[in-house]
Amino acid sequence: MIKNIFTTAYSSAESEIKAQTKPDYKVILICITVAFSLTMIKYLGDFKLMLFFLDNAGLTNLSNTFENLCTINKNAELYRLLYWVSTVIFFYLLPPIILIKFVFKEKFSSYGLSFKGAFSDYKIYLLMLCVMIPLVLFFSRTESFQARYPFYNILKGESVYPNLLIWELFYFIQFFALEFFFRGFMLHGTKQRFGFYSVFVMTIPYCMIHFGKPLPETIAAIIAGVVLGTLSLKSRSIWLGVAIHYSVAITMDICSMWQKGIF
Questions:
Q1: Is 231:240 a contact under the CB 8 Å cutoff?
Q2: How far is CA 158 from CA 129, 162, 164, 193, in A?
Q3: N or C: which end of the chain has fewer CB within 10 A?
Q4: Domain assignment of residue 130, given as a range
Q5: Cβ atoms of 109 and 181 closer than 8 Å
Q6: Cβ(75)–Cβ(159) below 8 Å
Q7: How many independent structural domains does the chain possess?
Q8: Does pTM top 0.85 for this prediction?
Q9: Are 191 and 110 in contact (CB under 8 A)?
Q10: What is the mean pLDDT of each run of 10 residues along the chain (263 residues)?
Q11: How far apart are CA 198 and CA 165, in angstroms?
Q12: What is the DSSP letter of 196?
């Protein structure tokens, strides 16, 4: 079954490769946009850098309010995470949307947002969950895992409800934005140039955004990049990837909170 999926994805992608007699400006713009968005997320995602910009722009009142929310407020952890995840969502979605809509003038359904045949390979989804959940349960006991997760670490004095619900909503949107950025915009935007190999081109930056996380998770990101990229290429849809990604992520958070006695 897995071999058939790879073969089908390869055949489908190769049939879309177009002969190039001049520079492919679409691919150039996509690669530059990916580099720009990842750079902005890396630097602007740090609330301290935003404080620096606000201070130097003379927006003292706004800077003080923002700093208080992210440092001394009883829900400071939530506000810091919401700021970070909003930055991620913004740069994963807005630059690609502008390019697709106003520069390429193409349909978003051509970039993985089609629901047609989106869940045709649901058996792979179930198989991945059956493999990942036991691994998550095992690694949730390790110090490196517990130091990193849950992503939103509820501290004493913070409200589990509605804070956790708010965070999980934003967390889900972030995974949609991530899948659209890598398995939609980058993958489907370059497949006419690279064919099936666009999966592996996309997997490189996708793996790199996991640097700093536990080693097993970063290694798993390489496998996930190839598998989810192949599924998206075959089905022309990112929705299965969104479902898989969020299911594993929320399982990681729940297991970590359970190990720490939060639940």
A1: yes
A2: 31, 10, 10, 50
A3: N
A4: 2-259
A5: no
A6: yes
A7: 1
A8: yes
A9: no
A10: 64 65 89 98 94 92 95 92 97 98 97 90 86 85 82 71 90 97 98 95 97 89 94 94 90 83 66
A11: 36
A12: G
